Amino acid sequence: MNAYDILAHYYDADLRDYHEDLPFLREMARRADGPLLELMCGTGRLLLPLAEAGFTITGVDSSPAMLAIARAHVDEAGLGDRVTLIQGDVQDVALPAEAFSLAFVAVNSFMHLETVRDQLACLTNVRRALQRRGLLIIDLFNPNPAEILREDNRLVLEREYRLNGRHVQKFVAIDSDAATQISRVTFLYDETDADGHVTRRTSRFVLRWFYRYEIEHLLARAGFMTRAVYGSYDLAEYDSDSARLIVVASPDR
Question: In b/e form, how buried is each residue of 134-169, taking b as 16+ CB within 10 angstroms?
Answer without folding.
Answer: bbbbbbbebbeeeeeeebeeeeeeeeeeeeeeeebb
